[in-house]
Design goal:
Helix content is 40%, strand content 13%. The strands form three sheets. The protein has a seven-stranded parallel β-sheet with strand order 3-2-1-4-5-8-9, sandwiched between helices. Strands 12-11-10-13-14-15 form a six-stranded parallel β-sheet, sandwiched between helices. Strands 6-7 form a two-stranded antiparallel sheet. By secondary structure, the chain is an alpha/beta fold. It folds into two domains: 217 residues, Glycogen Phosphorylase B (Rossmann fold), CATH 3.40.50; 184 residues, Rossmann fold (3-Layer(aba) Sandwich).
């Protein structure tokens, strides 16, 4: 009897990283693979939203086996902000022995796929002779930038740090110029800091990342970046990128409770087609706005005259008191054409709804893809991580968005909110953006159809997995 082909997934402790990997798992199951998910106990980084998504995935994917690795003694604490990457890398390192033991519990593992935040774990797979792949949950352009940034200042022959460059454009092979100020936060740290050194060391390892990199994108959306990743000029002489497989878009919620969706969707059902501006800034509390900013948004929405659905979080992450946070009388005055909800909304379903006409987004990559797949024009309001870099491509090569400029000064004022909402909803420029997004929506669907680029890349990935013979091990299949 032929032994089942087992793939082990090792996702990161973030909703935005976990969900795409579970979608990959679903695709693997459809192609006859046995899928097991190894999880670091999320008690080390308590996040109610993440815990709920994991529980939902386990309940809704009965053919996938979920295994929480035994808790290590005194695990490192994951800290937000500038120290996040260093602390997360330390956490992953502390679990390498646990992952090793888990992999050894199988008779044979055909491949291991690890999250981009957990790249060091590929060393465990390599030690055991198991093919290992990295899943990069952001864009191909971000991957190309990450691969090149560690060598940028060396190539320029300058000791100047990225943070000293200010808005000076950073020119990377195959990418449009990116203002240095738009790089992710860790790259803008002091070059002598542990955070900067660990970040650059991690990115310099990308060319040595296992047997391939899976990217949650599709080729036509990022044609220039995809071409750059396949070009030897992307890296210094002697460095070669592993195979890159553009398998996206992997989208959608996992096992979410339908009753949580009713209020938003029922309200949208009563609105005209393409009439509602949807404002949502991600799945985590790191996307909170100040009270001053919330009031500016409210004034801009009211003055725009357009319908809106706005997800509001309190500045400090607690349960928002909407009457205290928003201008006096705002909820009453806009009640006939606006809906304000607390903390959360079913973003993908809202975007797909016929009434949604525009999307104000923080430019997280999953959100970008959801906007594209829904064919909804976007307004960019980046907040952290690589979102500023995504914004450059959304407004530029992709042409799917306009930008809220005020974020660069730390406050988007009401008059800009009003102007940009009117631009995307009323103007010729807005109609052109909508047309380009619609074209990308069609291309995304084609990418996973017969003969499409993502389907072909997935077939190449499976062929590569099947062509690599992982050694059989003692022990029962877990």
């Amino acid at each position: 009897m032929q032994m089942e082909k087992t793939v082990v997934l090792y996702p990161g402790l973030a909703v935005s990283h976990f969900v795409p990997m579970m979608r990959l798992g679903a695709a693997l199951v459809e192609h006859g693979y046995a899928v097991s998910v190894a999880l670091i106990d999320h008690a080390v980084n308590p996040d109610a939203a993440f815990g709920a998504v994991v529980a939902g995935a386990a309940a809704s994917m009965p053919s996938v086996r979920f295994h929480t690795l035994p808790l290590v003694e005194d695990p490192p604490t994951v800290t937000p902000g500038a120290q996040f990457l260093v602390s997360y890398y330390n956490l992953v390192h502390s679990y390498n022995d646990r992952l090793h033991d888990f992999l050894c519990s199988f008779t044979r593992v055909h491949a291991v796929v690890v999250d981009s935040l957990s790249a060091e774990a590929l060393g465990v797979a390599k030690t055991l002779g198991i093919p290992g792949y990295l899943m990069f949950t952001s864009s191909a352009a971000t991957l190309a930038a990450f691969a090149q940034l560690p060598y940028y200042t060396l190539a320029k022959g300058s000791g100047t740090s990225f943070r000293e460059l200010g808005d000076t454009p950073v020119e990377l092979f195959g990418l449009p110029p990116i203002p240095a100020s738009h790089l992710f936060g860790e790259a803008l740290e002091d070059p002598d800091s542990d955070t900067y050194k660990a970040t650059m060391a991690g990115m310099s390892m990308i060319p040595d990342t296992g047997d391939g990199i899976l990217v949650n994108t599709f080729e036509s959306l990022e044609a220039c970046a995809v071409a750059a990743l396949a070009d030897p000029r992307c890296l210094p002489a002697g460095r070669v990128m592993p195979p890159v497989y553009c398998l996206g878009p992997f989208l959608g919620g996992i096992g979410e409770a339908k009753e949580r969706h009713d209020d938003c969707l029922v309200w949208l059902d009563a609105q005209p087609d393409r009439s509602v501006v949807f404002l949502c800034f991600g799945s985590t509390g790191t996307a909170n706005h100040s009270e001053e900013q919330l009031r500016e948004i409210a004034a801009g929405l009211e003055n725009s005259g357009h319908r809106f659905l706005w997800v509001v979080r309190a500045p400090r992450g607690d349960d928002p008191d909407l009457h205290a946070l928003l201008p006096d009388g705002f909820l009453d005055r806009t009640g006939g054409r606006g809906l304000v909800v607390k903390q959360w909304a079913p973003q993908a379903e809202v975007l797909r709804h016929r009434a949604t006409g525009a999307f104000v987004t923080h430019c997280g990559w999953n959100s970008v893809l959801e906007g594209v797949m829904a064919g909804v024009p976007m307004l960019c309001w980046p907040l952290h991580s690589e979102q500023k870099m995504n914004k450059v491509h959304m407004v530029g090569e992709m042409g799917v968005a306009a930008e809220m400029i005020g974020w660069q000064q730390g406050l988007v004022q009401a008059d800009e909110v009003e102007r940009k909402v009117r631009l995307v909803m009323e103007s010729q420029e807005g109609r052109e953006i909508r047309s380009r997004v619609a074209a990308h929506k069609d291309a995304a669907a084609a990418a996973w159809s017969d003969g499409g680029s993502s389907r072909a890349a997935f077939s190449r990935f499976l062929s590569d997995v099947d062509g690599r013979q992982a050694p059989a091990r003692a022990g029962e299949d877990a």
